């Protein structure tokens, strides 16, 4: 373990650092709120921001570790003494993800539940052996990758067991193999994206997966949550990139995929993709890679309104034209985006398209996409308005922390629907959020963009800002519930790329049906008969 | 029922006709063997063809129907009297698929096992009710679409139950809904492809799924077997087209999919896709559609050898260039193809690329693909050599019947592998087939083409011709076993698009692992607890 002082978390030598325990990312990058922006927010939200700083770390209350010494010894027999940590600093950094409820709890000094210990296995075989011990001893296991979940996927619920451990996969950080002819690579599940890109860059390749959590999220986490990145139009969703998976389960190894396609029964990759650590611990991911682009070109476009902009992106998605990235902001987000970027707000709404490839490919594709957008009523604004977004595209979570310290909740939620359902769904969710948050404690700004487009539909990504009010957690939960109900009622999926965790679990039975839930429980029974893997997440409780 | 004479099968009024009971398709289209070709084959195969006509239909031995009259009455209560058939002609046409073993058995007069009855449900709800009755009464159920399986997927195994019924879905032949904005359609599972195309053509759309079984195979069958069509490079595999599925199971309805993408847990569409009737009966399939192409352009290319041709297709698949179809024939198939097309054989091997779209799209894509192929050592031959293939691309099964009547086995098998494994796998399977068939009864012609390409690998489609010999069934089974062992040993999947059925089931435990098989059994337990659905197919028997 590398630790300079006794209060630092005991992370394994040479591995990536933990994120801030009360917010996103590197604490050194935290920003303060510009007083002018603060006043503007107060006006727009009809609420006086108040200081809401996090409690000092030493005041955080952690429950006493409960791991039986005999069980602890069995676990360190697998990992070695150095790779089990049960100090408070390490446990604190593994007691949840980065949703607004997570942060509100942590900042107020609550770290309960916390894992009783954090395990740092070296490889697949150690994970297998740890699961064997935990299954035999009745210890719940929460697989932990980059720690970026915003849906409660990392909350260390014990699920009726006497103790719970976080299984931190950061030591599984190797490029296991690379096949230049087939353009595939096998990566350890714990590899964070910047490291994955650096490893692949040595071969002139890229994965092209760029979600907002890019800097911290891991390859295994992407697979476990069916992640989707900002360049999904060109590179596909993460599940489209996965050619093979290897997972450790309490009943042994489950490997799936390999050949480029197969008709040999149901595709079991898709059982592990999206399984959120409830069916197994993904330890290795085989991915398709692409050559690194010679050129990246962004372009902003303007449309008279969101409906027209969305229809234009539909025309692109259903044509032969292929952007690498395609987004359209609603009127509200267009206005706020211009303000944050220090630009004058243009009327209507803005769309952004991006292109990656060789010089010739970028030219050809930008021309093809441009022709469709222009025909659909768009006006080309050029690259300038996109520059601020591209520079800051991974930093919104830092801004959220800053706002939170100033008493402002800024949270996101997302869905996807067919093109036919999209605009009505956008209105329904916007209205639900606005209504749920409007009252004595001020109002809300609700903004939205389409961030991922498909031939048959698109995603909607909402951002909400509102005063924290007197009971911030309850306030946000009320808004989230209202939005979720609107989503389900208007043909949306409960989550397009944030996954299920604890927060979307109440809507899963409706999403996949009672029989679908039975199937997931049956699969879990085959792989994790005792139910130690990430209890209380994803899979709905059995029908009464 | 529409039947003109008492010996005709009793198919429901207005539905598509059955195929020939002993061969492919429409008996009126059977062809006779040109004497010149017959002599050539004799010479190449070192064997004297012999006449092997099918027995007359009245000599076929069917087991007596075993359905309990009380159970029969419960079933007709659901379907109506007119939609249960247990006459010999109907049962004979539902006692298997169209593999060479199927045909050899049938032609020799064996129709055992045969279904005890054939059910023609009207809709999803009738399927649900029939499964309820069959589950309660212990009757095995074999879902039956177009009847085109070549892997034993339709063999009416009773699985330890006292009787078995074929569930013929031809009445589920409607376009249930069409969404022009989202470019999606919901089709009944029993719709055959030409009808699906006709229904979609009314909206100017196409599915673009063109497997060799096109004329008879159904939409539900494609989903149940993870089919892939000849234009998969452009339109995708069938599983890529499926946006939603509805299935009836003994435990109720399982519906999956809908929104264009989701992160709400494992994608349960992929549990039904490839389930081959073992987990549920797919009754409706939501598909993505495309606009009908203005233009279709085919081009042949010549390469010095198979390795160079395959590498050229790899370069295309890993580039921005996008053919709708991409195939490359090995030297042997290039030679035979030229002979069958009445053209002089060119040295080396031939590739075929096809393009569909608007005039401008076809031009642009043909230019882009052509540039890659030329750079990879190809010589453009133009459209002419492709014309014979396109005209005859659905008729190879008729030729197989003709050859079978002349004592020649002509069967196919297929696999897929990474680009790195592809050429060694091609050699290994070719050698295995050649060695298994060479002996006192003559030799074999083994040919192969790449029919589907992906960024990370490709499929291999082998065709084998050999004299039937004294024990044709055993002779073919020996060759098939040798090929399957070579596939598994050299990184191939046991099936790229023919599915598993009975014939590939012995290799499934190796393909998906013992734990993968456990998961499938667990899913089946949740959906079909009594195990009535297509017993003996796909899912390996439990570990001893």
UniProtKB/TrEMBL annotation, chains A, B:
One Pfam family matching this protein: FAD_binding_4
Q: Where is the FAD-binding PCMH-type domain?
A: 111-292
Q: GO terms for biological process? A: lipid biosynthetic process
**Enzyme Commission numbers on file:** 2.5.1.26
Its EC top class is transferase
Q: Site: Important for enzyme activity. Where?
A: 327
- The catalytic residues are 461
Positions of FAD binding: 143-149, 225-228, 276-282
What keywords would UniProt list here?
Answer: FAD, Flavoprotein, Transferase
The residues that the entry says bind substrate are 400
Gene Ontology MF terms in the entry: alkylglycerone-phosphate synthase activity; FAD binding
Q: Which cofactor does it need?
A: FAD
Family to which the UniProt record says this protein belongs: Belongs to the FAD-binding oxidoreductase/transferase type 4 family.
Protein name per UniProt: Alkyldihydroxyacetonephosphate synthase
Q: Which organism is it from?
A: Nocardiopsis aegyptia
The lineage, from the top, is: Bacteria, Bacillati, Actinomycetota, Actinomycetes, Streptosporangiales
